[in-house]
Amino acid sequence: MKLSLAPLFCCLLIPTAWADDSGGLQKGEAPPPPHAIDDGYRGTENARTMTVEQAKEMHDGATISLRGNLIDGSGGDKYKFRDKTGEIDTIIPKSVFDGRTVEPDNMISINGSLDKKMTPPVVRVDHIQK
């Protein structure tokens, strides 16, 4: 019985060894235009999510929760995020992607804090959800 379980166990481990863990923004298809971004009814999530326009008016260090698209990466960990109301610069460390890839047409949620000391203000992202 031990011999028959060992090959099965090895077969389950092999795909994880081949997994690509590069993650980050994959520039493929263009994101939808701002007027076409509508993610539908989300229940209680709508109460916690704000718009880019609202986020820019918050105080320095405010907790930010946005839903939209990552549309451009300018190298390193700097990205441009867009929703229906506008665009904002973000700083997303590679570790936040956790090996996941995000394309410009993927609707995502980001959570982080607003840094108004930088010009223009940026969101320092600590969590992404696809």
Which key features would you list for this structure?
130 residues; alpha/beta; OB fold (Dihydrolipoamide Acetyltransferase, E2P); five-stranded mixed barrel; two-stranded parallel sheet; elongated
What would you say this structure looks like, in words?
- This is TIGR00156 family protein.
- InterPro entries: BOBF_sf, CarO-like, YgiW/YdeI.
- It comes from Enterobacter sp. (strain 638).
- It holds the Pfam family BOF.
- Residues 1-19 form the signal peptide.
- The chain is an alpha/beta fold and 130 residues long.
- The chain has a domain at 45-130: OB fold (Dihydrolipoamide Acetyltransferase, E2P), CATH 2.40.50.200.
- 23% of the residues lie in helices and 33% in strands.
- It contains 4 helices and 7 strands; from the N terminus they run αβααβββαβββ.
- The strands form 2 sheets. A 5-stranded mixed barrel has the order 2-3-4-7-6. It has a two-stranded parallel ribbon with strand order 1-5.
- A hairpin with a 2-residue loop joins β3 (78-83) and β4.
- It starts with a helix and ends with a strand.
- The mean pLDDT is 80.
